[in-house]
Amino acid sequence: MEAAIVQRFQLPSWFDCRNFEGKPHGSLRYTQRAKDEKRFKGLALAHLQPERTNYRRGSVSSEVSCSDNKTSALLQAGSVHPFDDEDLILKRKAEEVKPYLNGRSMYLVGMMGSGKTTVGKLMSKVLGYSFFDCDTLIEQSMNGTSVAEIFVNHGESFFRGKETDALKKLSSMYQVVVSTGGGAVIRPINWKYMHNGISIWLDVPLEALAHRIAAVGTNSRPLLHDESGDAYTVAFKRLSTIWDERGEAYANANARVSLENIAVKRGYKAVSDLTPAEIAIEAFEQVQSFLEKEETMDNIPDGDL
Ligand SMILES: Nc1ncnc2c1ncn2[C@@H]1O[C@H](COP(=O)(O)OP(=O)(O)O)[C@@H](O)[C@H]1O
Ligand SMILES: O=C(O)C1=C[C@@H](OP(=O)(O)O)[C@@H](O)[C@H](O)C1
């Protein structure tokens, strides 16, 4: 993670920069007076450049130091938890959006591996909604037969019928977040059901999808499964073909969450730096924009449309 993290540190006492030695990492702002006196006290706003992070680990190792032209001082080293803030922002965002949803459900759509399940679970948790994974519902309706087995034993079109049945059932429910299967967007009837709630498209670049899928394997994703070739290349080729066939269908969703746009907004080099919480925050923001537009449209008199 390349982006700087801003963190406040309560410094315990006066620091005299001349008394410290250490290699400065990051920077620390302090007042002109402190600069002149080469000492300072109190709250410091530090920009940390973490060495490495991982969204599952949720913490970064860091060093905060101050320096002037001649000296530098290591003030604090250890672990910080930037995502504590992120979780709080996510919770607040959900609380902000929730009253305007009026109990409407949310349907996450997107290519295989786009994070519908991961992000959907997070969104349901902070909203206090129930979470459903469409593939899991289909498997349950088939006494635990896996999606991969359903494809092999009954074919794709049978699976698509089950998928539509599952969406029909879900469409009568309120306050649920649904992770749909990547192919749910290809049948117009499925959109009729999903439009009972708000649909959100997780738009993830194919390279990132292929990396994620190669990491977990393709056993549970029959449309990508292939014994030959290296996992990334096979996944990328298959995903490209699928994208050509149905890419446009995802744009029917009410809200689009583009990982490339979030990465640019946050100053990250790669979309792989984005955490599921950051993506969920953006999803709520896009839902908010959709609801605002919807309200504006509702307020326009019929004759003016
Ligand atoms: N933001 C993310 N960064 C890195 N890996 C992710 C992210 N979101 C999901 N993943 C991983 O990608 C894989 C697919 O995610 P999943 O939520 O199952 O996608 P989908 O439900 O759209 O198929 C999982 O292994 C998951 O841990
Ligand atoms: O894209 C698709 O056609 C499919 C995606 C899968 O779901 P995920 O998107 O959850 O992997 C699953 O429904 C099935 O393997 C078909």
From TrEMBL:
> Can you name this protein?
shikimate kinase
Q: Which pathway does the database say it acts in?
A: Metabolic intermediate biosynthesis; chorismate biosynthesis; chorismate from D-erythrose 4-phosphate and phosphoenolpyruvate: step 5/7
Q: Enumerate the CDD domains for this protein.
A: SK (cd00464)
Q: Which InterPro entries match?
A: P-loop_NTPase, Shikimate/glucono_kinase, Shikimate_kinase/TSH1, Shikimate_kinase_CS
Q: What is its EC number?
A: 2.7.1.71
Tell me the organism: Eutrema salsugineum (Saltwater cress)
Entries under Pfam families matching the protein:
SKI
What is this organism's lineage? Eukaryota, Viridiplantae, Streptophyta, Embryophyta, Tracheophyta
This protein's cofactor list reads:
Mg(2+)
